[in-house]
Amino acid sequence: MEPQSSSTTGLMIINLFLFFLFTSATVNSGSNLPKCDIDLLEFPLNLEYFEAEYFSFGSMGMGLDTIQPDLTAGGPPPVGAKKANLSSLVNDIITQFAYQEVGHLRAIKKMVEGFPRPLLNLSEESFATVMNDACGEDLSPPFDPYANDINYLISCYVIPYVGLTGYVGANPKLQSPLSRKLVAGLLGVESGQDAVIRSLLYERAKEKVSPYEMTVAEFTGKISGLRNKLGKNGVKDEGLVVSRDEGAEKKIEGNVLAGDEDSLAYGRTPREILRIVYGSGAEHVPGGFYPNGGDGAIAKGYLKRGR
After folding, report:
1. Where are any strands of DSSP class E within the chain?
2. Residue 86, pLDDT above cutoff 50
3. Which residues pair with 208 in a beta bridge?
4. Distance of CA 201 to the CA centre of its chain
């Protein structure tokens, strides 16, 4: 038998390389991730499920069970979610957000196994409780997040930004470049969504939110104040208008984007996030938007410690 030519051998090596490159790219990336990365990538699913359902129902009157049922993994449907009374512009924007969140869920679940959709309470009553807590009084009539553009956008101010700070907080703790790449991609779009929401609200910052005697800016300030209080780790949240000392370079009161003294995004830990989204100020006491608590190793770990 004649020896193989150098060109044939080279071709075989190239084909073998391409084979291994292809197969390694198609294997579930999560199988090779450190345990801490898996836990930190799973945790945001709690917030991504919230955003996907709230944006989908608010803009289209339907949720993941209709749009992408396989992503729910059989988890219970959200309570109280419904179509909001939105203008065509805002409805279009929120619809875009909804489909973006579907993509986020899929992207995370490509990397890690994840968990079924947790029980979410997206009812008017749930949001009304948050607004009462933020304002320090029972609003009359109760705040209805589905009533109109302004109410819905203010309600969108409540949770999505919390997820953004979670990605900022998680990024330096991740060990794998694949994990950091995923979080960077998620953070880019989540921060964009937050910027759009804040911009739409900032445009009407001085308007009174009917029928209450508070402006849009005052509502955002009170919500940010509540999140700082529940998070129990200093100021990591700012409303649309702040004192000049808190503004960018201490030179301006407008605050269309929140940031620290160097205008860098704030980061939060999973513990802080759970304290906020549960509305209890305690990572081991579920409630609020998550009646049974969150899922995944991190959230379940805190729940077990509270028993």
Report:
1. none
2. yes
3. 215
4. 18
Percent of the chain with pLDDT over 70: 89
- Cis link prior to 211 (omega < 30° from 0)? yes
CA distance 238 to 59: 27
Specify the length of the chain in residues: 307
CA distances to 51, 168, 211, 283 from 188, rounded to whole Å, are: 16, 10, 36, 27
How many CA atoms lie less than 13 Å away from 178 in the CB half-sphere?
A: 17
> Where residue 160 falls among pLDDT bands split at 50, 70, 90?
confident
pLDDT at residue 212 greater than cutoff 60: yes
C-beta separation of 39 from 64 below 8 A: no
Residue 216 contacts residue 206 (beta carbons within 8 Å): yes
Q: Which residues contact 153 (CB under 8 A, 6 or more apart)?
A: 90, 197, 200, 201
Residues 17-53: pLDDT tens digits?
A: 444 444 343 334 556 899 999 999 999 999 999 999 9
